[in-house]
Amino acid sequence: MHSLLIIGKVWPESTTTGAGVRMMQLIDSLRNSGYSITFASTAKKSDHSEDLTKLGVDTVMIELNSDNFNIFLRQLQPEIVLFDRFTTEEQFGWRVEEELPDSLRVLDTEDLHFLRSGRENVFKKVGFPYSLGQTLEEVFKLDITYREIAALLRCDVNLIISEFELSLLKEYFPVPASQLYYLPLLPTRNSMKLDFSQRKDFIFAGNFLHHPNKDAVRYLSTLWPVIKRLIPDANLHIYGAYADESILQLHNPAEGFHVLGWVENLSTVMEKSRVLLAPLRFGAGLKSKILESFKAGTPVATTPIGAEGIGEITDFGGAIGVCDSKWIDQLVQLYCSEEQWTIAQTKGLQVIASRFQGEELKELPNWLNQIVRNPNEHRKHLFLQKLLQYETLKSTKYLSKWIMEKNRISAFFNDKS
Fold it and tell me: Of 323, 325, 338, nearest to 200 (Cα)?
């Protein structure tokens, strides 16, 4: 039995975020493969946090910038440490490297944060749509790009959620293929897959702590009057946790624009809806709600950003466009034509059946086990990893030590006063 420590940025919430779904899929797969798992985080738990102890997972609260974490590592002695997003690796990776140099270090990217930030910046500058070239030009200007790529290079294995992001890292960044493992998000809920006549209305679903979702709903509020005029009896139901006042104020039942907040079982409302709207103008990774929508047999109208890593125009279960008049015409036809809707539903189900059945997740434990047996063999040719472990390049380590010393001096003078 291998021992695994997961250092979470937050406690997983599978009913509110795609990241929570992703983390629970990882935990379930590795636990079912015989791993002994401890989950640690500096974050506070919320009402939506999973009760990991029911799954036999030990849970621990840890501190930032504290040598107590080193003591914890020495006591636990995990063979594998998995970092939940690159910022967690920045905070704790150097401590793992020093205390447990033979332990395998794994980074679950969730999505490429620098790609999401770069797209958001380009969108604010030039609007939507924009090109990959414009995105890359912006990406190479951002500090977050160099921080995230450095974190990927320091780790032994990086779990990449999207085939597009896998190609991006291989083509434009010096991350060796041996450090990359494609592991897509998987739809989880089973649905009744009701037919066209049993469904009505549009749906949007997304966590509002995620900026792309907030932007999409605000944008939908400007598109909706046109859609409503073309389909007078249609309504739009918007679901998602953590909506702030700027989103709640968009609630307008008289116009069929309903902001309804968090729902515990999204599949029950998704499977009764006719079309999912996802006009995402920036973002990264795989869109969990689009995958869930396909699994529920619900066609999707989205953008190239939303469809990224899921399917091309010819095999996508719905409409892909840039939110112009042509895209609106397509989604209206998708909503009103039973023939087009049924074709789109079939395509969406085929995408799930052909590309998101979880083979990569099933193979992950075996792949990790092979590397754990001889991590030094895996690291033998990772020159950039060794370079970033050189003392003069350990900025995250010395920043943490500086914060620790500052906190110690502050506490000393507070005690004196």
Answer: 338
The model's pTM: 0.91
Give me the count of residues in the chain: 417
Q: In terms of C-beta density within 10 A (0-12 exposed, 13-18 middle, 19 or more buried), how is residue 65 classed?
A: middle
In the three-class reduction of DSSP (H, G, I as helix; E, B as strand; rest coil), residue 45 is classed as: coil
| Residue for token pair 């079982």 | 265
Phi, psi for residue 237 in degrees, rounded to 5: -110, 120
Separation of alpha carbons 228 and 344, rounded Å: 22
Q: Are strands 202-205 and 275-278 parallel, antiparallel or unpaired?
A: parallel
Q: Is the pLDDT of residue 401 over 90?
A: no
**Domains of the chain and CATH, by start:** 3-186+359-413 (3.40.50.2000), 196-355 (3.40.50.2000)
Q: What is the CA radius of gyration of the chain?
A: 23
* Secondary structure (DSSP) of 229-272: HHSTT--EEEE-SS--HHHHTT-BGGGTEEEEE--S-HHHHHTT
- Reported as a single tens digit per residue, the pLDDT across 70-79 is 999 999 999 9
Taking a C-beta distance cutoff of 8 angstroms, is the pair 54, 21 a contact? no
